[in-house]
Amino acid sequence: MLRGRSLSVTSLGGLPRWEAGLPVENLLLFEVSWEVTNKVGGIYTVIQTKAKTTADEWGDNYFLIGPYFEHNMKTQVEQCEPVNDAVRRAMDTMNKHGCQVRFGRWLIEGSPYVVLFDIGYSAWNLDKWKGDLWEACSVGIPYHDQEANDMLIFGSLTAWFLKEVTDHADGRHVIVQFHEWQAGIGLILSRARKLPIATVFTTHATLLGRYLCAANIDFYNHLDKFNIDKEAGERQIYHRYCMERASVHCAHVFTTVSEITAIEAEHMLKRKPDVVTPNGLNVKKFSAVHEFQNLHAMYKARIQEFVRGHFYGHLDFDLEKTLFLFIAGRYEFSNKGADIFLESLSRLNFLLRMHKSDVTVVVFFIMPAKTNNFNVETLKGQAVRKQLWDTAHSVKEKFGKKLYDALLRGEIPDMNNILDRDDMTIMKRAIFSTQRQSLPPVTTHNMIDDSTDPILSTIRRIGLFNSRTDRVKLILHPEFLSSTSPLLPMDYEEFVRGCHLGVFPSYYEPWGYTPAECTVMGIPSVTTNLSGFGCFMQEHVADPTAYGIYIVDRRFCSPDDSCNQLTQFLYGFCKQSRRQRIIQRNRTERLSDLLDWRYLGRYYQHARHLTLSRAFPEKFHMEPTSPPTTEGFKYPRPPSVPPSPSGSQGSSPQSSDAEDDDEDERYDEEEEAERDRLNIKSPFSLSHVLAGRRSSTENTRIEFRPGPTG
């Protein structure tokens, strides 16, 4: 992978201008992905969040290509006629020859144009296109692999469309970025047919890497030892692996999303990525500086309400001294680190009990699994809580009226008579209704595979059953969160804002949007040095822990050592005072600028520059350069206390609302925040030059001057 200095972004209207060096009016940019308007996984988030910044720069010259699904078209796309003549003529040609191509604006931020192909409508060409693929790269697709067959149709339609576009482009150069192996066939066929396009292939995770890690293989320590063909064949994905590898080697420029995935791709796909393009988010800043802290308090109160119901009859812990932790994502027990997390929670429970801590930790597992329905005991808990609330409210109204009448008469009410016997009876019945013989359930739903479920099996082994003596309580919520849920009526973003810490100790995580989302919302998180996000933060932040990013070493440590390190992170977090957590959340939220597409977009800019220079060397050229990087720039370690919240603690946990008066003098938030703002303003520099020859008489040379490195 190329390394070196990076882009200096010029500003237009206060926003970084990604494509400052490209004559975008003379270019067409296409992005191809199976997840355009079609949510399957994390690539959908990448494309959706990046669309606004890309559309702002490229305007009507930016198009997304994806599959057509009627339900997605009706709810996400506003149909319209293409303005671009080349796109319109390409669509007309394909529709006349038995295809069905739809066009419109995707109803997301930026409203980018989308071109959608109806896969089923063109399935009659499948056998012919299988022959075309075989002639292009000698890869055959089994008839029973429905997904691969769909990708062949999608790729063939993409290549056909790109040919028609280039035939009518009127001298405009075409850049096409393909995401993942699902879009790769379009790249392979386009290159085999020698279409005049500049191609970029981006892998967000290698096919074989995901399969191997799911099999609990020591993946990263044996990267150079795998027999790739044998492993792919044994898993019956050899044809898919060949399509992925062919796509990688056909592309002018190969990119991936993180340093750790770049190492993986070099061994699995036998090509070193040219550029690493980290994933970003659309970061929205609040006009009030600490509004995110207010949102945390508001949504934490809603989570507390759920906990009151779930633990009714066993609510012998102080909710003001209770921390809410969570893990969320696909139910991949080992890949997502649920195994090491549960083991660490068992050890954390021992430490908190041994030190007689008054801190309680409630941990949520938000991982969708097969269920029958809600757990009856869980529903009953919320019903009991609501009944108690109604009872308390009615007694309060009655009490308030009597108090009001007494004060109007100028009397001090007799507190012994202000509640009558009926009131006492109602309250006693309410108390009796909160008694339960069983322990609070560890899951909110009835699991279909209760006996073999990995999380429940581990809970049985470590013995965390939400007993009174446990300081760590577990709640498995095997369903995505929804504001319409009768149990926990919160959207995912609201839930994250209400928690204190997100824990994602993943073993296989090419990027990791969950900790990134926590960061932009000002919520500290745990990640690992095997996730792209963790590597990115290690590179950019001198002391990640001080900024609320705890990075567990899962690459160079044994599983037991990694588990101990995670336990110490969690225990240190439990020892923080309320003030220290507030300071840490402020610092975490300031890191959100690092994850903004307005900054990370420059990596995509470099990939486009590079692919143009390789595809059209006579028109564009780059002098010997290196892609964007941030070597030499890091968020500095905060000089104020607590520099590392866990490092400034006593030997046992403090109460959550304890405060250290000395910290008032040693922590100047405004000064620290201003220093961080200055550091992020211009952390990058560029040392490459792109020349674009627009005509035989006009040569335009664009130079990027190195900016300060912070």
From TrEMBL:
Chain spans, region Disordered: 620-710
Bias (Pro residues): 636-645
GO molecular function, one term: alpha-1,4-glucan glucosyltransferase (UDP-glucose donor) activity
UniProt keyword annotations, A-Z: Allosteric enzyme, Glycogen biosynthesis, Glycosyltransferase, Phosphoprotein, Transferase
CC terms in the record's Gene Ontology section: cytoplasm; cytosol
Classification via CDD domains: GT3_GSY2-like
EC number per UniProt: 2.4.1.11
Class of this enzyme: transferase
Reactions this protein catalyses: [(1->4)-alpha-D-glucosyl](n) + UDP-alpha-D-glucose = [(1->4)-alpha-D-glucosyl](n+1) + UDP + H(+)
GO biological process terms on file: glycogen biosynthetic process
Involved pathway(s): Glycan biosynthesis; glycogen biosynthesis
Regions of compositional bias (Acidic residues) in chain numbering: 657-673
Superkingdom to which the source organism belongs: Eukaryota
Low complexity bias (residue ranges): 646-656
Known function: Transfers the glycosyl residue from UDP-Glc to the non-reducing end of alpha-1,4-glucan.
Family recorded in the similarity comment: Belongs to the glycosyltransferase 3 family.
Designated name of the protein: Glycogen [starch] synthase
Organism listed in the record: Bos taurus (Bovine)
Lineage start: Eukaryota, Metazoa, Chordata, Craniata, Vertebrata
Gene from which the chain derives: GYS2
